[in-house]
Amino acid sequence: MKKEKAVVVFSGGQDSTTCLFWAMQQFEEVVAVTFDYNQRHIAEIECAKNITNELGIEHHILDMSLLNQLAPNALTRKDIEVKDGENGELPSTFVPGRNLLFMSFAGVLASQVGAKHIVTGVCETDFSGYPDCRDIFIKSLNVTLNLSMDQQFVIHTPLMWLNKAETWQLADQLNALDFVREKTLTCYNGIIADGCGECPSCVLRKRGLDQYLSSRKEL
Ligand code: ZN
Fold first, then answer.
1. Domain extent listing, the chain
2. Which residues of 67-98 are buried (b: 16+ CB within 10 A; e: fewer)?
3. What SS3 class is residue 161?
4. CATH for 5-218?
5. Which residues of the chain, if any, have pLDDT below 50?
6. 52 bridge partner residues
7. CA of 8 to the centre of ligand 1 (A)
8. Using one digit for the tens of pLDDT, what is the confidence trace for 87-121?
9. What's the 5 CA to ligand 1 centre distance in angstroms?
10. Measured in angstroms, how far is the CA atom of residue 189 from the centroid of ligand 1?
11. What are the φ/ψ torsions at residue 8 (nearest 5 degrees)?
């Protein structure tokens, strides 16, 4: 696949940055796309810009503020608390239709820039329960995108079956562990690198990193 082109759905977080490095290894040409939907923290967009600048990757930022207009949620509004879902409910960070829209627009961009491949860091293993992160949804959308544009897109999900420790391991295999650790933003409180250490996202990230680093020591 080395000669082909890919669009990476890119937020500047741990997962999508790992995917960006993965794509740079797999494809000759890589383009990143970031969706601006009035995230709580403008720092996310800045972080994504800095990373693509540093890596010399063409970066598209698409305005998706309509998503917030339709479905205000804990990622865009300060007055909605970030919390895990209880009693089988989805977490307050779930945005209905988000990946459906993002992946569809990524498909449109891929068609515009002549990319056959679309890469996303969605993952079924992190137990967030987001229905639009499941493998079956991505496979279904792949078919739909191809039918809608008469294209042969291939959606790649390198993290689909990895847990957080394995995602750190993948970053390490791509010689990007320190880069991902120091330059990405996953914290719900908008703090780069190791983050606030307290929000659900930081707890998940740190647990995975500790687990990976201790397994590496044992080898
Ligand atoms: Zn945090």
1. 5-218
2. bbeeeebbbbeeeeebeeeeeeeebbbbbeeb
3. coil
4. 3.40.50.620
5. none
6. none
7. 24
8. 666 666 677 888 999 999 999 999 999 999 999 99
9. 34
10. 5
11. -105, 125
